[in-house]
Design brief:
Layout (H helix, E strand, L loop, with lengths): L2 H15 L4 E6 L11 H4 L4 E8 L2 H5 L7 H27 L4 E4 L16 H7 L4 E2 L5 E2 L7 E8 L18 H5 L14 H13 L10 H5 L10
Antiparallel strand pairs: 1-2, 2-6, 3-6, 4-5
The structure holds cobalamin.
């Protein structure tokens, strides 16, 4: 086993031990120009560790036509968990003598464009965690879209994962349930504005204090988690 594999395996073992459900590493050298992060900081960081945390299926099962209070709380708890996880993983990397930059799970940097420091979905896709589904979410073979993501940028010379050559097939569960009709047959036709307007409507009705929904997340379970979460 070479050094890159050794570092990868020990980091993965540590991270899964801290409660991550998905782990992958992406080469970001070609996409980091798109990141909204200072160029000087980014200069030496050519790897991204992409982590996923599964959502609780009992919380999701309560969602029918709108986001629930339980889902809203769960959304915040999982974001908090991912931020803590990214901090722990960063500290682990730094203790080994490398640089690490944890990126917030759900912080918006530009409210006009609704964008962030970087796209966790894009990094996760490059790291082999899944594919961009009809629902515009990253879909994993085991968890469907029922997980949230976080990213840590690093210069640790880790082995790189490859993107998976997979896509949504016959399943159209998300297409049928979307209250905005925003989800189409082709992922590229996803109606971003329609989706966003629906989320604003939920917020206006004070169903949640942030732009969340959860309906297409609930519908997207590729293989029900055997642990019954
Ligand atoms: C702002 C934001 C929103 C905005 C949308 C803004 C937007 N422009 O997309 C609003 C409020 C509408 C929103 C809604 C939701 N969001 Co949101 N959101 C974010 C946030 C904070 C930033 C996204 C961003 O920067 N977007 C800018 C665009 C350019 O990037 P993108 O949307 O990630 O991906 C696009 C491109 O990158 C491209 N792309 C994707 N893969 C690849 C690969 C390659 C190689 C290339 C070239 C391009 C490409 O296609 C995508 C669509 O155009 C991220 C967290 C983060 N930092 O990533 C969460 C995030 C994307 N949201 C998430 C979720 C779950 C939701 C909701 C379900 C809400 C909820 N929890 O109930 C809905 C989903 C609606 C839907 N079906 O898409 C999750 C997705 C998890 C997953 N499994 O995919 C994220 C990653 C948060 C997290 N930490 O997990 N969100």
């Amino acid at each position: 086993m070479n050094k890159q594999e050794l570092l990868y395996n020990s980091l993965k073992k540590y991270t899964l031990g801290q409660g991550a459900d998905l782990f992958g590493v992406a080469d970001i050298s070609r996409i980091k120009d798109e990141f909204e992060i200072g160029k000087k900081v980014l200069e030496k960081l050519n790897r991204a560790v992409s982590l996923g945390a599964a959502l609780n299926s009992s919380v999701l099962s309560e969602i029918e036509t709108h986001p629930t209070k339980l889902y809203f709380h769960h959304y915040k708890t999982v974001n908090h968990f991912l931020d803590q996880l990214a901090l722990k993983v960063s500290n682990y990397i730094v203790r080994k003598g490398y640089r690490a930059l944890p990126i917030p799970a759900s912080q918006i940097t530009d409210w006009q464009r609704q964008s962030a420091h970087l796209s966790h979905k894009k990094v996760g896709e490059l790291a082999g965690l899944g594919w961009l589904g009809r629902n515009n979410l990253l879909v994993n073979e085991k968890l469907g879209a029922q997980f949230r993501l976080v990213t840590i940028l690093t210069d640790m010379p880790l082995k790189i994962d490859k993107p998976k050559d997979l896509a949504c097939t016959g399943c159209a569960s998300c297409v049928k349930v979307c209250p905005a009709g925003a989800i189409k047959k082709e992922p590229k036709d996803f109606d971003h504005i329609g989706c966003f307007e629906q989320l604003k409507e939920f917020q206006r009705k004070r169903l949640a204090d942030q732009y969340i929904c959860g309906i297409c997340v609930k519908a997207c379970s590729v293989e029900k988690d055997k642990k019954g979460r």
